[in-house]
Amino acid sequence: MLYYRCVKAYRLCEFACLMNTLTLVQPQLGPYLQEVGYERWSRAYSEGRRYNIMTTNILECINAILVMDDTVYTILDGDKNRVVDLQARTCSCRRFQLEQLPCAHAMIVIWHSKRDVYDFCFEYYNSSTWKATYVEVVYPFPHQGDWVIPNEVCDVKVLPPDI
Hints:
Helix content: 25-40%
Oligomer: single chain
């Protein structure tokens, strides 16, 4: 991946050439990476030894956010692109829509767009919904051996539905 070649470049001239190519391929990525600061993620601009270890925050160095429009973003996460749609509450990793809570990719986009993460959690996870669930008294079932089941209920045969 071109981004990792930029990260691993030793010489400034090699880095500049790779960065120009990267910016041509992904125009929004160049200004974002420059804003983060080349010294935070690039070997060419590093002032000290890193011992071949990335030492910066993963949100700042690995995940790059490309804005498609106000609600759709592309996240560059390692060697995979993830598409997050905040309006539809989806991510191409599928965790956002399956869990109905923001996945890591959505969290990065929400943080980047300075929005409240709680606005993107499904309503069932809100404290008001949890409280409303237990407004009425919930009586526990007695032990199964203590159940009194009328004979007419015991005699009913329940069959699976026709498909």
